[in-house]
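User: My collaborator sent over this chain with a note saying "see what the structure looks like." That's all I know about it. Can you take a look?
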Amino acid sequence: MSRPSPIRNPDFSSPKVMTKRAWWLVILNLILPGSAQLIAGNRFIGKVGIWATLGALIAIGLGLLINWISPATMIGLLTNPMSLTVLQSVLIAYCILWVVLTLDTLRLVRIVKLWPSARWAVSILAITGLVIGLGGAGYAATVAGSARGAILKIFESQKQIEPPVDGRYNILLLGGDAGPDRLGLRPDSISVASIDAKTGQLVLIGVPRNTERATFAKGSPLYGPFPNGYDCGDLCLISYLYTYGQEHPELYPNAVKEGSQPGIEAMRDAVEGLLGLKLQYFVLIDMQGFADLIDALGGITLDVPQRTPLAAAIPGSKPFGWVEAGTQHLNGETALWYSRSRYESTDYSRMSRQRDVQEAILRQFTPQNVILRFQAVAAAGTQVVKTDIPATMLGPLGDLSIKAKKLPVTRLELVPEEFNPAYPDLKKISAAIKDAFNPKATSKPTP
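Assistant: Without extra context I'll predict from the sequence alone. Here is the result:
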């Protein structure tokens, strides 16, 4: 006659046997959920738990393999709302299954049959393992839901994917005046991020907001009212075209439908004419909310070239603070003031500081940092960003951003003394841009 299994059919009258059995069942449930049921309880439930766990491990392994072979594909999957919905649903289902398996394991253990000294220890181990597991899976499910919500809100544009032009993606970056009711009004910061579609080489081109005599191609809606360019001196600065476009929405009747605004399209036409580049996409950032995004990232670290006063451009105003020279870690509010302070400062030095802040954010926008702070980053992002980049472009652009982090950022500021914003020399600007695009160029970017 065979001896009964001490796991499935134990001697319930022996506290020693039951305690030893309890430890085995709880540990097996932690290592491979479902295994406790397979050997001591309902085998069907056990098989469901084991296959679900093995499926999860296989999915994680495939994810790591896909990320190693093609990061763009993985980024595309993780930024696809449908994929995120499926992922969140699977994670929630697994959390429920884990709770059921853990509670059933405690039922199989028969706590009252254990040595009194072991009852609390076994229970605490089972519950602790459950909490840790649920915490991880639950957080992942929450992140998936937050990511889906942020992507649907920020990247809602139905615009078609734009191919690279001359091997580059060119994105117009606009920093809008602070305040929820003034988003984008007379952009305080105008620049273009040009990305090599193969290498990820990034060139940041700074355009002074006081640039005059913007010209437009014949196909531009602005060519009609300004066939000779936006030429009326300091009353016709390039940044004023945002307001002009907003006041004349009939010039860009499809702008809102394509996830843009008439003012943004006017700015795009003006910057395209100035730089001689096709701007496939735009990103508009509310500068006040910009501080929230920096705080969400845990602040930014800057190499400050000189002691910088912080104050508004109000007659008689005094600095309320300073950013000292050297390596400094700034919170969102201080970084915003550092990039916008006008105290004893020219627009051109402000441009340089703004580009410093942009670069610092790019460096610190790492996957690890975003994952650790995802909830705050997603919440800030939905408040500060408007763009016509479609969600389907997040994979390719995300892959290029990873490559860009390994390369130095080239900066070209179209400021005096080398460039004259009042009388832009388009040929000189075009030549400077070509030099900046050449990764072997030995000339230093304009300071």
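A starting point for your reply to your collaborator: The chain has two domains: 15-154, 168-437.
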